[in-house]
Amino acid sequence: MRVFTRPGSVLTALMAWCCLLPGAATAGSLEISPVSVNLIAGQNAKVIEIRNRGDSAAAIQIRAFAWSQSGDADILASTQDIIVSPPIFTIPAGASQTIRLLLRGKGGTGERSYRLLLDEVPPTNTQRNQVGIALRISMPVIAAAVAPPSRSLRWRARRGPDNQVLLSAANLGNVYDKVHAIAVTLPDGSHPKIVSSGENPYLLADAQRQWVVHAGTPPATLQLSVTTQAGASEHVLIVDP
């Protein structure tokens, strides 16, 4: 679970991009199960359990957003596709709250992707020179495609500025994928540093992500070893000018 601070806010916000894995996750004093919502084709309802393991009450607001990707950026847009009940609530210390999600509409043949933002509202602090801490958790919600799942990543390498190599992956399938690990081997056997401009490893259907390979002088070819949601694979790529 990755966290970052949100600049320009009176409150310090922590965002956790939860993995698309079953089970429960603990964020601060809140325990959430499951950590992601996966709806099979035809399913339109799901239940989330949130338990407050802290020693004080926690006020929570939940909002649903449509989730898309543009380059390395994750785009969240307001949506009416998901109904959250209740959207605002307070969990006493040691208690739990059941959240019900309802997905509206049948959608198309492709996979639909959303995110739930759970914001903990910090208590009012009457003492001066103290900053409240707010927790934000971002949970993925994936509604499966009606069509049979098709997984296909197309990898490409090309020369970039400052003698860098730009490595990109385009998801040509109709379901999301997730890039767990990437390694590049140059013709001389060396393994250059790879940097991603985005923190989120997910690659939604029809989306594209990019990595920067610090290879010194760009080679004519490189060997790519990658592990994704679909498994491990090897690729020999020609570096385009």
Tell me what you see in this structure.
- The chain is mostly beta strands and 241 residues long.
- The protein folds into two domains: 12-143, Immunoglobulins (Immunoglobulin-like, Sandwich), CATH 2.60.40; 153-240, Immunoglobulins (Immunoglobulin-like), CATH 2.60.40.
- 0% of the residues lie in helices and 56% in strands.
- It is built from no helices and 20 strands.
- The chain has strands at 12-17, 25-27, 30-33, 37-39, 45-52, 58-70, 73-78, 82-85, 88-91, 96-103, 112-121, 133-143, 153-159, 165-171, 177-185, 193-196, 202-203, 208-214, 221-228, 231-240.
- It has an eight-stranded mixed β-sheet with strand order 16-18-14-13-20-19-15-17, with no helix packed on it.
- β2 and β3 form a beta hairpin.
- It is elongated.
- It starts with 11 loop residues before the first strand and ends with a strand.
List the helices and strands and how they pair.
Layout (H helix, E strand, L loop, with lengths): L11 E6 L7 E3 L2 E4 L3 E3 L5 E8 L5 E13 L2 E6 L3 E4 L2 E4 L4 E8 L8 E10 L11 E11 L9 E7 L5 E7 L5 E9 L7 E4 L5 E2 L4 E7 L6 E8 L2 E10 L1
Parallel strand pairs: 1-12, 4-12, 13-20
Antiparallel strand pairs: 2-3, 3-5, 5-10, 6-7, 6-9, 6-11, 8-10, 11-12, 13-14, 14-18, 15-17, 15-19, 16-18, 19-20
